[in-house]
Amino acid sequence: MSDVTPPHPLVDVRADFPGVAGRGDRVYLDSAATAQRPEAVIAAEAGFTRSDYAAVHRGSSMATGEATFAFETAREKVAAFVGAGEREIVWAENATDALNLVAGGLSDASRGLGGERLAIGEGDEILVTEAEHHANLIPWQRLARRTGATLRWVPVDDRGLWTVDDLRARLSPRTALVAFSHVSNVTGLIAPVADIAAAARDVGALTVLDACQSAPHLPLDLGALGVDFAAFSAHKMLGPTGIGVLYGRAELLDELPPARTGGSAITTVTMEDAEFLPSPHRFEAGTQPVTQAVGFGAAVDYLTRLDMRDVRAHGAELAGRLVDAVSAVPGVRLVGPRPGEDRAALASFVVDGVHAHDVGQFLDDRGITVRTGHHCAQPLHRRLGTAATTRASAYVYTAPDDVDALGSALGEVRAFFGADR
């Protein structure tokens, strides 16, 4: 690791984040779990709550109109941020909810409630990877059981990695759906999304992308990538909790049955049946997360001002520094891409002789916040031969000094627990 690294321009934004600037010497390296919020997002939520708070899409009052305008403007902002049309952005509770909306809709379509091209049944295959977050695995397990389809997966190697060639080898004319993560929340692997989407199209399969770890860090154009559905969450990209996004190609969303039903999503209801609105409103039954949507819109405004190309460059710089810091410590095993290989701005590792939870507590006592556990990826950790890893993750407000502090503290862990004897 070099002794001196010129600070990236994004380090200057730290003052915008009270959870970082206001915490003294505390080092926050858990952004892959939840990112800190800038004052601009906090102010947008508070301002809407104070001045414009009202129900949306209900009634004809001025208050409802103003709230609806703010709500739909936020949708426009998020759509533009990820290269989507406004009708292709559905508000969900979070990314997990969004993925379940797809799985539940496909299950109903398989019962004849939606478009035939969305139906999945016996003889079909659903393909995932062994590295998936549980949110992008369990819904497909359930869908396979409900429809009689077979769940298959792309195995990972000893470092937790898989390749597009590994995936292509498991595609067949029976593959109906391919679900995978753009960026692994454990290894930091960045998948070649466009190549995978094209390969899936060649066999007539739908694609579902978990973009939770890519939307905050990479310039994203979902339309150009060619995926059919995608999911991501606001709280990982400087926004509030309680809101996420389901992206889907408009023509597919109009054919996908809504997995949740109720008011605000319909055109006509009789005692025997109901007809649903076009996307996105067919999926947004009930009272909406209006304040959260406004905050999400402010978050993508903030990221847009930073320029996602600079966000990506900053992340790449910190990714290299994280890898160097972890790899330099004897008795610490890095998971995922090797030093010098491309990865997102996170690093998971195993400390020989010390449980990940103890590592996390040691670092926390020294003012460094990281994540420990299986990171909702138990099959991946089982393949790696460990119950848990420690993960450090960076974002726009992370400085090189933060990573250096991690490396310094990590060098003391094994001696503290007597594991270096």
TrEMBL record:
Return the protein name.
Cysteine desulfurase
EC class of the enzyme, as a word? transferase
Give the SUPFAM superfamilies listed for this entry: PLP-dependent transferases (SSF53383)
Domain Aminotransferase class V, first and last residues per copy: 27-406
UniProt keyword terms in alphabetical order: Pyridoxal phosphate, Transferase
Q: Which reaction does it catalyse?
A: (sulfur carrier)-H + L-cysteine = (sulfur carrier)-SH + L-alanine
BP GO annotations: cysteine metabolic process
Claim: Glycoprotein is one of the keywords in the record: no
Q: Which domain of life is it from?
A: Bacteria
Q: What does this protein do?
A: Catalyzes the removal of elemental sulfur and selenium atoms from L-cysteine, L-cystine, L-selenocysteine, and L-selenocystine to produce L-alanine.
User: Entry's InterPro entries?
Assistant: Aminotrans_V_dom (IPR000192), Aminotrans_V_PyrdxlP_BS (IPR020578), Cys_dSase_SufS (IPR010970), PyrdxlP-dep_Trfase (IPR015424), PyrdxlP-dep_Trfase_major (IPR015421), PyrdxlP-dep_Trfase_small (IPR015422)
* Family membership: Belongs to the class-V pyridoxal-phosphate-dependent aminotransferase family. Csd subfamily.
Specify whether Amino-acid biosynthesis is a keyword of the entry: no
Q: What's the EC number here?
A: 2.8.1.7
Q: One GO molecular function term?
A: pyridoxal phosphate binding
Give cofactor(s), names only: pyridoxal 5'-phosphate
